[in-house]
Amino acid sequence: MAIRMVEGRHLHKCFTYARDHGEDLNIAIGIGVHPAVNIAAAYQAAYVGR
Fold first, then answer.
1. Sign of the C-alpha dihedral, residues 27, 31, 37, 42?
2. pTM over 0.70
3. CA torsion, points 18, 37, 41, 48, in degrees to nearest 10?
4. pLDDT 10s digits, 8-24
């Protein structure tokens, strides 16, 4: 299993924030979900930080 984390994208920003604040970055793994969920997961929305 692998995670693609691209610098400057949402996941990388969340990871960097968590690391800088000494927090864990919680994730979820969905197996066998509806195709609409996969499409929503791939959607590139604007980043809204904390």
1. positive
2. no
3. -70
4. 888 899 999 999 999 99
